[in-house]
Amino acid sequence: MGKRVGIVGVGQTHHAAHRLDASGVELIAEAVTRALDDADMSLEQVDAIVIGNMDHFENINYVDMWATDGLGSCMKPVFKVTTGGTTGTTVGAAAYYHAASGLFDVVMAVGWEKNSESDTQAAIATCANPVLERDPFAGAIGPLATEYSMYMKAYGATEEDAAIVAARDRNNALNNIYAHNRMKVTVEDVLNSPMLSYPVKFLDMCPRSDGACAVIFAVEEKAKKMCDRPAWVHASVVRHDYTHFGDLEWQWMPTLERATLQAYKYAGISNPLRELDVAELYLPCSTCGVKWMDSFWFCDRGESPKKIIRKRVTEMDGELPINPSGGVIATNPIGATALIRVGEAAWQIMGRAEGRQVPKVKKALATGFGGCSWSDVFILGADLP
Amino acid sequence: MERVAVIGVGQTKYGTDKPETFHELVWEVANKALDDAGITVNEIDNVVSVSSDFWDGRTISSMAISDTSGAFGKDISTVEGDGTFGALYGMMRILSGSFGTTMVVAHHKGTESSMSGITNTAFDPLVERRLGLDAVTSAALQARRYMTVSGASEQQFARVSVKNHGNALRNPFAALPLEITVEDVMASPMVASPLKKLDCSPVTDGAAAVILAAEREAKKLTTNRKRVWLKGVGHCTDAFRLGDRDLADTRALKKAAKKAYDMAGVTTEDVDVVEVYDAFSYMEPLWLEGLGFCDDGMGPEITERGYFDFGGKLPVNPSGGRLSANPVQVAGLAGMIECVLQLRGEAGRRQVKGAEVALAHGINGMCGQSHCVWIMGK
Amino acid sequence: MADWKSEVEEVVFPGKICVPYSWTVGSTLSKWYVQLRDDGEIWANRCPSCGKVYVPPKIKCLDCYKDMNDWVKLPGTGTVETFTVVHYHEPGLHPKKPPFVYGVVKMDGADTGLVHLIDVDPDKVKVGMRVKAKIAKERTGHITDIKHFKPLS
Predict the structure, then answer these.
(1) What is the pLDDT of residues A222-279, one digit of tens each?
(2) Do B144 and C84 touch (CB under 8 A)?
(3) What is the interface pTM, i.e. ipTM, of the complex?
(4) A142: part of which helix (H) or strand (E)?
(5) What is the CATH number of domain B4-114+204-228?
(6) Which of A254, A299, B316, C130 is the right S-S partner for B308, CB 3.0 to 4.6 Å?
């Protein structure tokens, strides 16, 4: 069977709307250098590299080849994986499998995006089937607004519930020096911000950012030598389902339910709200931070507003702090976004999360979201799996 | 380390005018691979798709094949690049212990887009892209460099094209079987010197799927005759900018090949059949050198002597190679499938007698910046 | 699937992905392009560790992964390492009508080659030919500020 794998180093750029000081390759180099520093190791010790981003955001074909100078991958094994919004966790999972397979000992995952270089919504719109859906229903905001309005109608959730989540993540970002948007906001500020697509308002929605993230995975023997407290991978699970938007279940997230259920099983978790110590979740919109709580099995379907959100159990001092980093609505370099979730969760376990550190983290959850409601889940632990 | 087997394969007939959508092509090959393995989609526990947003003209284009590849509700991931890298990721996922049976499926509809425009986007927008380089012109630069270093002639490159198009006559899946002579290749229109039209692979449509299984699953799921073992694999990348490398130096391929041979515990002497990535005629002898089948610079001459012919000492590209069908993402996976068929003894009129060990090779990037080498055996 | 075409016609939607892009040039290449644009000079940078000189300049040495802060001015001359005469035309992509010549020019004073156009009679171009960069009169800060390479003498 496979090897046990731990995360021994994490690096990320300072994220911003426009990183005009750095090209894409330079952003990648910044993240790689910081990850190597974090792991206190040199590039020679890296046996293989995996990279990912979304092609149409920068219009670079064969990114794994183009990025060689920044990746430091010349004369090393490298390939590219990409799955849209979940790209970051896809890269992380690929690095994990590289090491777990026994083929490579130390593997670096790199996710990056320079969203300032194109029209993000125009590029995302091309994910829809050109013959069926591209013209009438495409982009990221419309589908997210649609799913929350249905959830509101079905379970009595409100716009204010979403605003509570937005305020939580945005205020958490004040503690994260890497975050793109760092602003103090109140629930009222969110509610008063401009409507984008009912019921989603400006401050509910993620930005588009420039940034990169690198996470170094190592097999057990190496990880123990390299790091005094590696973040061990307890589970890496992906669930995808439909191809067409019209086929999706809109009131809950079947992919997330199935992915988390499997991941909790691998990690031996029966009560996730109690047993997890921190979660870094890919919530592209605050509304997801309400609706998807059900699908994380933190409560029964429809109970999220009453049992989770309005009780403030996911604030920094709550039972399960969610997104101490500020999450996706504070920082969103898309191909890196989900890998930042994994990196932040690893730092929480390694005790390196600085101003946003949650005390005594033993188990952390990190997720990715993308495509047609696809879900990726990582569970990391302080103890060997 | 547990062994991983290929237990089922499926490919479309490759063509230059296929009317199906790429998700329909995936449906076709996924079903063929399942039938070949004699299993149902329920026995597949994860899927690796190989696709490219550029060639497909869609963002997250792997979205479009999640249903037809049988990935509904499953763990799926997408490799962007050649199919050999997809197979590599498929094998890693099994070796990790997380999965037992992986469907690896690649698709390509080259005829729906512009080869030149798409491969131009592989060049750095900050430097070379504006000069208008593409896969063909950059390959031409590599071909000339190779001629300079090795002393090879255009006629020797043409000989590769004659051989491979001729091999394709025996392969019902090939897109461009041709009975041609060196003179025909030399007389075909000059595209970018020294490359002429018949030195270049055709823009091709098609799809291919392989089903990989852990040893424990493979023995349960299919017969011994169907099982082909993945014995060794290696991959490696060289510098990005064409001017940063010596285009005739195959050092990245050599490193990848060494890893694959070492892992498999074989040498070049043990290999009975080879499917190498001949997107252009000159690539075949160049990569054969890198793979260690002859000394550097000797590839063209040894090819000319018939050593790599179908009836030669070491048959190379019995399928007709990429010169006879080059569905880009699929290309290397198609080579792996050819190796599987050869090892099973199911290659029909192109069967290499007694093939026990086969080598398949794929590349990523311009001028073979990155290589993946597979050793497969019975 | 084989016979469906006899029952219905094959419908094809034409399409195009039109996304505008603005690529950040970054610290290393910005410096290179500003020097090229303002002074008409071609510079390279050198690895502080192994001494390898790169043009276009590198953010990190390919072999050592060290930062590259050491800049050297190149004379703009070099040797054609390889070339191709292009005979097909891709409108909107190719900068010239065929036949025209691309080459990799091994630059004097650098360890790497530069890919560019070579302005030469396609029948006369040769590997090993000595060439010099022709700097464009009107410069915008792009690779085309080097108009092309021309044979020396």
Answers:
(1) 999 999 999 999 999 999 887 777 777 878 899 999 999 999 999 999 999 999 999 9
(2) yes
(3) 0.97
(4) helix A141-155
(5) 3.40.47.10
(6) B316
